């Protein structure tokens, strides 16, 4: 497996995904080693000076006024990590913890934190050997960094607390380190603070959400095209000259995708003639590019913010090139928190329009000749009636998840930290929203495929036909009612792992 090299420059999205989701090993570059060693010299100089320096020879937060004598500073760092590892609730997903650790290591590698090389190398070793600290759901306010989550990782670094090994087996951190041939770190001046003071958790979740949403939005275009086709809608509204009248780039890309996916559809061609008297389609069909496109543009704005954050060195205090160690507010999570909230809004609205398209298939007054609820024997069979209920329940929750976390703030640390971002909370709810969008789009694909089967002998477009063929490998076509939940989960899996999108792109080339 390719090693991800962590240097003084920013990591890429692909680097984060490789380590977080695909267990890529990690190594520091020579430039990072030099930068870390140079910054450490400045910290050690300040640690030996009689003048107090925040984070090096003082307490933390509201306790920063106390000067800590040199013989107590190792205890200071241990106490900081132990006391701040105060998370509670369910375990956070392995991929999130690995992303968090990688991004903290990336900041350490810039040479602006004053960490010792041994400490950074041990963190890289934990990632390479698949040692994942147990991090709990609650504990971060998204300011002064993701303190509690990062502290649980730092706790494992010093050989305390609980971790899971590469096989997912829970065990004490000291045992996992020993099995990997790693020595627990004895923290020295400033190291505890450098390990816990960053936006790494919320940033890691943002990077993964952006990757997932980029795929899901292209899949939503496929689902929308299937719905337009199955409901005898028109593709004329997706013409490039119409989209150019409102030149949002995401809208143009989404409309182009819809037009390409619907190309050469026998179903669409069947009602293009003079006998078709429908004036225009419902908003959920006709305005799909406008909604999906706005979502795309918002995702790309979030990606710009994430790229800037990946290029940042987030710590307090920081070591500057001239040796100064200065306090700052770069740990505040507001820039990341805002876009995490924006993306939860995006996910909710794309899911909402997907559910509306699905619902139109099930109402005989609006489905243009399809049986009620796409049932085999309406009345005896219920068809996809309750699949839409499931969509509606998910969309309703997603609307609640779209309420922003970043507008909230609860003061902490005796009012020293009196305004916080709640960015971690924004990231946690976005993960649930991305899962919800996956499920809603999957149910639309499943329902639209059933409708297209019912349009036979009219032939679907080659692209939508490829999705239909993919589904039919594991999910039977129309017929009497069956246990529907497993079929929904199969469709969810196909959407989540990109198989639906791949079926289209293997047929007509890459979508935008």
UniProtKB/TrEMBL annotation:
Enzyme Commission (EC) number: 4.3.1.3
Catalysis performed (reactions): L-histidine = trans-urocanate + NH4(+)
UniProt keywords, alphabetically: Histidine metabolism, Lyase
Pathway recorded for this protein: Amino-acid degradation; L-histidine degradation into L-glutamate; N-formimidoyl-L-glutamate from L-histidine: step 1/3
Keyword Transferase: no
Main location: cytoplasm
Gene3D superfamilies hit by this protein: Fumarase/aspartase (Central domain), Fumarase/aspartase (N-terminal domain)
NCBIfam families in the record: hutH (TIGR01225), PRK09367.1 (NF006871)
Protein name as annotated: Histidine ammonia-lyase
Organism: Nocardioides jiangsuensis
The gene coding this protein: hutH
